[in-house]
Amino acid sequence: MAFDLFDRVHKELSITGHAFYEGILSISEVVNRKVEIIRLHWQASSLLQRIDDVTDRVGRLIAVQVSDRLHSRLQPDSIVYAVDEALTDARARVHELKRSLLQVDAQIRELKLEAIHQDLLLLHHDLTVRSAGIERLTVMRDAAAAGQPLSAVPTPLASSIATVLRGPFLLGPSHDLILRPGDIVITIGPQAELDQLTHWLTGQRPLTLALTRSPQIVGTLT
């Protein structure tokens, strides 16, 4: 009996210690990622400053050459040659700096995507334990929502619409906004409301209702 109790306590302590270790590891990864993003931003700022310095030196050189031409008897060909040589050198250096800047920018975007992914996982967990969710729904051509303003959505459901994506634009959920086929609607709220919006926006039966086969079927929005 005592041996079983000791074994059980040992297992619980092992599980708790492992969870604590995983938590510390997760926090350290988040901190390291943020520190790396800050470092890369500083590097990108330094590259931009170097590009500005190159263009500033070229501008000063051209101004000096033109000024010397106006106040001396230098041959125009020598001035053109000096300016052309300076521009060629500056163009090569700026091209190299921009290539480095693009590489840094790609690293920043990759780290930010990792951070966003982690945040989305936490958001999904927070919503799930509260019987809520977040959906990305595309308005279908044969759906009831196509051609309808957002004011046609019943008030309790309208509050679940966070934003509408249309091409390159981010549209606020105003009551006079007419939904078009192909619009992407981001919804967040209680799962029951999202199920109704899914049917209204896409014309498809919500998966959660189909799986649970709840006797309280939500009526079709009109």
**What is the CATH C-level name of the largest domain?**
Mainly Alpha
Order of helices and strands: HHEHEEEHH
Strand percentage: 5-15%
Roughly how many Å apart are the termini?
66 Å
Q: Strands of the largest sheet, in order across it?
A: 1-4-2-3
Number of helices: 5
- The radius of gyration is 30 Å
Percentage of residues in helical conformation: 55-70%
Name the descriptors:
single chain, 222 residues, alpha+beta, Alpha-Beta Plaits, four-stranded antiparallel sheet, 65% helix, disordered C terminus
Report what the structure shows.
The protein has 222 residues and is of the alpha+beta class. It folds into two domains: 2-127, Orthogonal Bundle (Helix Hairpins); 132-212, Alpha-Beta Plaits, CATH 3.30.70. The chain is 65% helix and 10% strand. It is built from five helices and four strands; from the N terminus they run ααβαβββαα. It has helices at 2-71, 76-128, 155-158, 191-202, 207-212, and strands at residues 132-138, 161-166, 169-171, 184-190. Strands 1-4-2-3 form a four-stranded antiparallel sheet. The longest helix has 70 residues, at 2-71. The N and C termini lie far apart (66 Å).
